[in-house]
């Protein structure tokens, strides 16, 4: 928190956000995400602007950036995707499309994802 009269600079869509979103992809590899989508039967039936795997990462990013609205979180995610893919343009969906995509996905893939990666952090011989 800044003192009176002091400006607090925010790193909007900066490297820190890209690293945070990148860590999501490292913690939850795309193959694992695709596997839980298949196991949950949540694969989309047609080509969509928001495929199921992207919606999973979007929901995870919502938890990472809890202080932001859904549209802003998707802009961060899309910015990171286009940065990582070297300039590929990502079309941003409306808030309504994001909400419908989350409803289509449902909770099962996220539960399965958690169950597939959750485990103890310490080894049994750690004091």
What is the strand and helix layout of this fold?
Layout: H1 15-27, H2 30-40, H3 52-64, H4 70-84, H5 95-105, H6 108-117
Helix pairs in contact: 1-3, 1-4, 2-6, 3-4, 3-5
Care to describe what's here?
This protein starts with 14 loop residues before the first helix and ends in a 10-residue tail after the last helix. Helices cover 57% and strands 0% of the residues. The chain is mainly α and 127 residues long.
Strand content: under 5%
Structural class: mainly alpha
Low-confidence stretches: 6-11
Rg over alpha carbons: 17 Å
The H/E string reads HHHHHH
Q: Mean pLDDT across all residues, rounded?
A: 81
Quote the distance from N terminus to C terminus.
Answer: 38 Å
Shape: globular
Largest sheet: none
